Amino acid sequence: MQHREMFALLIHIYYPDSWEKIFREQLRNLQSFTPLIMINLCATNLANTDTIVNIKKDFPEAYIITTPNKGKDIGGKLALIDLFLKTNQSVEYMVILHDKVSPHSITGDKWRAKLFSIIDPGKINAIVKQFRNNSKTGIVGAKDFMRNEYDEEKKVLETSNSEKMKELISKYNLTVTNYTFVVGMMFWIRTEIIRKFFSAHSALACRELLEEGDSTDQYEGTYTHSWERIFCLLANDQHYTIKGI
Amino acid sequence: MFINKWLVTDSIEKKRIPGNATGLCLSIPGEVRDTNHLIRSIQTDISTTPFSILLSGNDFKEPKTNEALIEIIITIFFQPCYYMSDYHPVIFLSDKSATVSGFLEQLNEKAKKQGLRDILILEPASWKNTSNSFASFSYWITDITTDYTGLVKKWFEQNLRKSNFGEIHLLVPEKENPALAILDDLRKKEEAISGTEIYVMASVLYEKEKLIEEYRHKLLLKTISEKDMQIYLSVQKEERKTGLNWYYHEYEVLPRWYKQFGHVIKVIMGNRSFKSLFSDSVKKHKD
């Protein structure tokens, strides 16, 4: 199945060696699909100049930006969405990725490997078919990372981010009937979902609320972690479903 | 470099950058008609060329909030080659007015909300207006009468006694007929004084200050990294506590005889060696 520039890879890179260790080989494996590549490098990396040269060597047409460390990978992805929309890209699907290293967890590498299954070349055709055969599919992500924090009995969101999530849902007038989201913020999403929402609410304006530097929602909710959930709720608000693979 | 030579242009599409120029200074009008074209040109045509932007007060007639232009400029700041002075985005400003100043204040606020540092606004003076010369070390160069030696000498004198000083910026409008000749003249003049004591001392002073700024920045990053490590450690501690808690409630609370019987079951299932039931020095299970 030919997918010339049918999908865009929006990749946020925070760690200095992530391009070499994680993405270079992965993207080479996807070259036959000729995806549009957009990469955000965190501006805290002193080696960004070299990384850009290395990226351009293999992928001279890749779009590259650098942004301050705000909102972790979510902030980086919002900046990439802003770039995507400002450059009027016409691909049907976006694949949102980042270098999930999770240094605080002993299972970080395993998480990443599972999340990255969505860019396994052997699965791309099946994923695109899922979208094509079912017009209501809005997001496709790794099955093991689907989660729903809404307690149907208590009618509450069981997460430290519940208050901030409610604030954002109200701010953006979202109607949510299903709180399922993909933990880890890596998935395929129909571009029209992104285009529709972010045409009304600028991605950069959404980014303003996010916390600077690293943050954790272990004790208290954050806008950054709330947005990890909100992204998937955008699909539900527009009457799309989320599928796991 | 401590002397930057900018070719001021209103278009970067397929621009051939003269070798004598440090980079391009893109003149942005009060309204950008084709954002798509502009951003794509930056990404494809000047992806490795340092560039900055120039705003003119003449393009900002009415005091109104221009959110669209603010966002475009912030997107431009995110381009890897956008020129930063000590990690502050630089904007050149001509024909300052109250309206454009208001716009720049709004832009600065929005930029800071994106995590950027305060914008450094530089107002180039006319080289010929000697009463303003050497004030901010940003100049319009429109002919080949630049006193290079005097410029470097004054910069050195003013900066010898202070720290955190800026660079010299020479802006050459592309529309000036001898723009390339001017840039060539600047290059020759710089070459001519590059071996002089004043130039060498100014370069060394500049490089020293840059090194200090770099170390300050690295120290800041290390501080942030240390703070992140503390967060990770606290997460790990919490996860371990949760794990131990679960273990206690699932296993530790069981009676001793039940746990001992469980070990016998493990031996029967092959998950533990028989001898390890009687000796602690024998290996309990396979790796």
Topology:
The complex is a heterodimer of chains A (245) and B (287).
Chain A: E1 7-13, H1 18-29, E2 36-42, H2 48-58, E3 63-67, H3 72-86, E4 93-98, H4 108-115, H5 121-133, E5 137-141, E6 146-148, E7 150-151, E8 156-157, H6 162-171, E9 180-182, E10 187-190, H7 191-200, H8 203-208, H9 223-237, E11 241-244
Chain B: E1 3-9, E2 23-27, H1 35-45, E3 51-56, H2 67-77, E4 84-85, E5 88-94, H3 98-113, E6 120-122, E7 125-126, E8 138-140, H4 148-159, E9 168-173, H5 179-193, H6 197-252, H7 256-269
Parallel strand pairs in B: 1-2, 1-9, 2-3, 3-5, 5-6, 7-8, 8-9
Antiparallel strand pairs in B: 4-5
Helix content of chain A: 40-55%
Secondary structure category of chain A: alpha/beta
What Rg of chain B do the Cα atoms give? 31 Å
Mean pLDDT of chain A: 92
Oligomer: heterodimer
Strand content of chain A: 15-25%
Shape field of chain A:
globular
Mean pLDDT of chain B: 87
- Element string of chain B (H = helix, E = strand): EEHEHEEHEEEHEHHH
**N- to C-terminal separation of chain A?**
19 Å
Radius of gyration of chain A: 17 Å
Unreliable sequence segments of chain B: none
Secondary structure tally: strands of chain B:
9
How many beta-strand runs of chain A? 11
What does the main sheet of chain B amount to?
9 strands, mixed
The H/E string of chain A reads EHEHEHEHHEEEEHEEHHHE
In DSSP terms, counting alpha (H) and pi (I) runs of 4 or more, how many helices of chain B? 7
Our measurement of the CA-to-CA distance between the termini of chain B, rounded to an integer number of angstroms, reads: 59 Å
Q: Beta fraction of the residues of chain B? A: 5-15%
Structural class of chain B: alpha/beta
Report the biggest beta sheet of chain A as strand number plus sense, adding barrel if it closes: 7 strands, mixed
